[in-house]
Design goal:
The protein is mostly helical. It has helices at 5-59, 64-154. It has one domain. Helix content is 94%, strand content 0%. The model has no long low-confidence stretch (mean pLDDT 92).
Length: 155
C-alpha cells in the first residue's frame, strides 16, 4: 500500500527544494530589513548634519570651509542612500520573484501529494477488491466441498 518509491522520492525532493527556496526568501527579507535600517540611519545622519549646520549658522560660527565639508559629507551620505535605496528596490524585486517560486513549488508539492493520495486510494480499492475475490473463492470452494460431502453421503 505504500506510495511508489519514485513518487515518494519526488515528493521528498520537491519539499526540500521548496524549503530551500523559502530559506532563500527569508534571507532576502533579512537583507531587505538590514538595507532599510541602513537607509534610515543615513537619513537620520543627514538630518543630524543639517541640524548642526543650522545651529552653527544661527550661532554665526558656520564658516565657508565648514559648510563645504558639511556639503561634501552630505553628498557622500546622499550617494550612499541612493545606492542603498537602489539595493532595496533590487531586493524587493528578487523577493517577489522568490515568493512566486515558493508559491509554484508549494503548488507542485500539493500536486504530488494529490497524486500520492490517488495512488493510496487506488491501492486500497485494489486490496479491497482482492479481499472480496479471495472471500468469493473461499465461499465457492466451501460450497464445492459441501456439495461433494453431500454427494458422498447419499451413495
Amino acid at each position: 500500500m505504500a506510495t511508489p518509491f519514485r513518487l515518494a522520492r519526488v515528493l521528498r525532493l520537491r519539499e526540500q527544494m521548496r524549503r530551500f527556496r523559502t530559506h532563500e526568501a527569508e534571507q532576502l527579507v533579512a537583507r531587505l530589513v538590514a538595507e532599510r535600517r541602513e537607509v534610515a540611519a543615513l537619513v537620520a545622519e543627514r538630518e543630524r548634519l543639517g541640524a548642526l549646520e543650522a545651529e552653527a549658522a544661527r550661532a554665526g560660527t558656520l564658516t565657508p570651509d565648514g559648510l563645504q565639508v558639511g556639503r561634501a559629507y552630505d553628498a557622500a551620505l546622499a550617494s550612499a542612500e541612493a545606492v542603498r535605496t537602489a539595493e532595496i528596490v533590487r531586493l524587493g524585486h528578487a523577493l517577489d520573484a522568490k515568493r512566486a517560486e515558493v508559491l509554484r513549488a508549494r503548488q507542485e508539492e500539493e500536486k504530488y501529494l494529490r497524486l500520492a493520495e490517488v495512488h493510496r486510494q487506488r491501492v486500497l480499492e485494489e486490496e479491497a477488491h482482492e479481499f472480496d475475490r479471495t472471500l468469493d473463492e473461499i465461499a465457492v470452494d466451501r460450497h464445492r466441498r459441501n456439495r461433494k460431502e453431500q454427494g458422498h453421503g447419499q451413495v
